[in-house]
Design the sequence.
């Protein structure tokens, strides 16, 4: 079963509101990556986090890796219609080889 | 620079039919992957090839076979399609293993088995 849980599964927001998706694991993660998939499209790499407590920003997007390296979040400030899509986290577990395990994704819908 | 190219984009199969999904990358990547995507399930790894000449099972390999034809190409074969294999299939590649490496995805193949 899925070892990386992502919540919420869906989120509707009004344009201009903030949005956050969370990725949680019971296992310590070596690293975590975030991907965005536009409707009908393919996943596109956004960022990778490796260090405990790491925070990275890309314009309106803020990515955070938990201190215990068991969770991560993606926060979008002041959403725009171009943010519509599904956001996936993908993590490598400690002592579990090199393969990424993807979360189920959070589908973001933005009302203009 | 095409990146990862996969064909066909859409396919309808009857139960029991066979087919091969083709994938090629032009980024000189060592590692290639096949994923399937189902609603609410995220992306699940079917098979991967860490380098030319090697293939390994992923999370959901049953009902599939793969061939790493050369460094560029990695095909996925369904020998006897079942309705449970209705899904969107993504081929992907990375420079080396997944840890620390960006994965580049193809545009997807929509497969329906009736």
Sequence:
């Amino acid at each position: 079963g899925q070892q990386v849980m992502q919540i919420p599964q869906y989120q509707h927001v009004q344009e201009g509101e903030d949005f956050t998706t969370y990725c949680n694991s019971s296992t310590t993660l070596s690293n975590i990556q975030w991907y965005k998939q536009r409707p009908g499209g393919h996943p596109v790499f956004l960022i990778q986090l490796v260090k405990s407590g790491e925070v990275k920003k890309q314009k309106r997007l803020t990515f955070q890796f938990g201190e215990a390296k068991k969770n991560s979040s993606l926060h979008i400030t002041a959403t725009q219609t171009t943010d519509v899509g599904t956001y996936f986290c993908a993590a490598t577990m400690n002592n579990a080889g090199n393969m990424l395990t993807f979360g189920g994704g959070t589908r973001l819908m933005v009302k203009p | 620079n095409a990146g990862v190219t996969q064909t066909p984009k859409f396919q309808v199969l009857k139960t029991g039919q066979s087919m091969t999904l083709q994938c090629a990358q032009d980024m000189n990547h060592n590692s290639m992957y096949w994923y399937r995507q189902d609603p609410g399930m995220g992306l699940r790894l079917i098979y991967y090839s860490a380098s030319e000449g090697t293939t390994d099972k992923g999370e959901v390999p049953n009902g599939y076979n793969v061939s790493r034809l050369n460094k560029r190409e990695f095909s996925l074969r369904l020998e006897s399609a079942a309705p449970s294999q209705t899904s969107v299939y993504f081929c992907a590649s990375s420079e080396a293993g997944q840890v620390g490496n960006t994965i580049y995805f193809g545009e997807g193949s929509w497969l329906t088995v009736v």
The CA atoms of residues 62 and 92 of chain B lie 19 Å apart.
